[in-house]
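Comment thread on ticket #2218

A.B. wrote:
> Attaching the input chain for the structure job we discussed in standup.
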Amino acid sequence: MGLDEDSLDYHREEPPGKIEISTTKPTNTQRDLSLAYSPGVAAPCRAIADDPDDAYKYTAKGNLVGVVSNGSAVLGLGDIGAQASKPVMEGKGVLFKRFADIDVFDIELDQEDAEDVIRTTKAMEPTFGGINLEDIKAPECFEIEETLREEMDIPVFHDDQHGTAIISGAALLNATEINGKDLEDLNIVFSGAGASAIATARFYVSLGAKKENIIMCDSSGIITENRAEHGDVNDYKAEFARDVPEGDLADAMEGADVLVGLSVAGIVGEEMVRSMADDPVIFAMANPDPEIGYEEAKAARDDTVIMATGRSDYPNMVNNVLGFPFIFRGALDVRATEINEEMKIAAAEALADLAKQDVPDAVVKAYGDQPLQFGPEYIIPKPLDPRVLFEVAPAVADAAMESGVARSELDTEQYVETLEARLGKSREMMRVVLNKAKSDPKRVALAEGDDEKMIRAAYQMQEEGIANPVLVGDRESIAATAESLGLDFDPEIADPANGDYEAYGERLYQLRRRKGITESEAEDLVEKDSNYFASVMVEQGDADAMLTGLTHHYPSALRPPLQVIGTAEDADYAAGVYMLTFKNRVIFCADATVNQDPDEDVLAEITRHTADLARRFNVEPRAAMLSYSNFGSVDNEGTRKPRKAAEKLRADPTVEFPVDGEMQADTAVVEDILNGTYEFSELDDPANLLVFPNLEAGNIGYKLLQRLGGADAIGPMLVGMDKPVHVIQRGDEVKDIVNLAGVAVVDAQQNE
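C.D. wrote:
> Ran it. Output below, let me know if you need it in another format.
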């Protein structure tokens, strides 16, 4: 099937469409319903009647945007009517929710007259926190937006105008930085003179371009003062009329620095590109096919052509989803009365800055593992980059507060943490640990320091103040890789082959000489095996913690630190723990990586260490010893182990958390079972620390929870070691390394 058939199947699959309404409060009991509706709902109604601002406190208004269209200019389909536009408006709602956690009602108005659209939209102000106008033809769209912005007290934003302007504006800021030109000196040509072209030209002027350097062309050619005087163009086009000779697009492009295409496919030829100034910038944004193809524009010249399109299959995609969800997020969260020019500029500058930062592995993978590094092929972030929310929304919120249109104030640093929580519990939990790490960063030895991911992780650790990384590996190789990645930092490097580390070999020999190792073998291991080198470094106190495992199998990566650093004084065993985060729940799973068949003593020890780990995440542990039996329903050697472990822990006066078992997994996590059938349990609430009876069960269990339960997994985190060591999984992403470095730093803080 083709794309059209696939799309029709996608949209008609039950339930039809792309959005639904879900409840945010419990509705399981009669009391729940009496609170949600009559008679309890009268209380917030009265409160809002007394103070209309309380609508933001007691209703969803503050996170609800109306996507309003009359279907008069839908994508490239033109005036197809209100009802036919509904799939697009639903899609807009999907993007709002997916990228910024904003709820949407799509509103399709069967109204052609601008005054009718204005009147209807204005009447809906009590419902919404903001209005996103969509797919309304020019010039009516200008009148509608301008009037609504003046008469409504909530943000009104016509994305077809401003979205392209903001995203391409960010691209233009970076393009001029790359080609060394000044924005105010650019000669800019527009192919197209519709709503998006006019709004984009206006925005470029706000960014610093000069209006007198802009030439705009419509289907009849260059918009000149002569054409404006003879009434050949409307008032909006006349704003950019120039006192220049008549001509067509080809004439306008001669000597131009920038071409902005917002018109039709194939209108620009290679010869026209060759007529432009040195190192030209071409934004060919007609959809689905640009004014000139990417390959054609690049092939037309020998110098640097910085090219952007509206397509995802080429570099530098100008996509409005980089703007509107995050602009509204920031505007809603400070209850802005409008989205003004300062907020739009802040969004563009934040996007431009983000393109210069190291790109997360998940984003690179989403785009086919193509290199993404600031330069002519990467001047704007990718739409799937989750960091856009944390950069653009705070920038917009700050601009709203500084420009005086915000009705509430917020702390930007705390606001970023709130935004992270919107994207998942795992980010919220990791923020707890990373904030602790930043309060007192420690030295973390990265055993595989010449690996590209480790170098990028070290850069982020240092940049964010999470840790003081020490890259273990070849100095020249590390420096060359950092330079090739465009990372502007001077990392600390420990090169085992070119440094004064004889004492490390001697120390390893002292530790392992009665384990069959000779002095020369110890020296050789320290020089050639970075895991042994980093382990001795930590054991000697020259580093506070260690990370390894990126390029090794877990057992081989764990062996050196176990041999050199060993377990803590109160521990005989190490264990691997995963933290699984669900929408409203956090679960710690142990042991998932180390102990194959633990007895009751090992299970008890694992539980104690995992409880300590949970507290580092500000989680008060409630431990369940898992089995296929409930409190003696089956009695054999296998079920006795977790039962005895639970008894041992309860008898220990130093254990200050509830623990019970043996119990089945659903008993441990379902409140109705735990407190209904087994009301005698030591756990008053469902367990958040699950101790599996053996390695096989633990590994299977956490992976099923992660994959089928939709949980995010952080780990494995190694507990029970004398000094902080974490063995990451082969193939982990940079963010996983940084997260475990944060955990290691907090471990080291606890050990002081």
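A.B. wrote:
> Thanks. Noting for the ticket: The first helix runs from residue 3 to 12.
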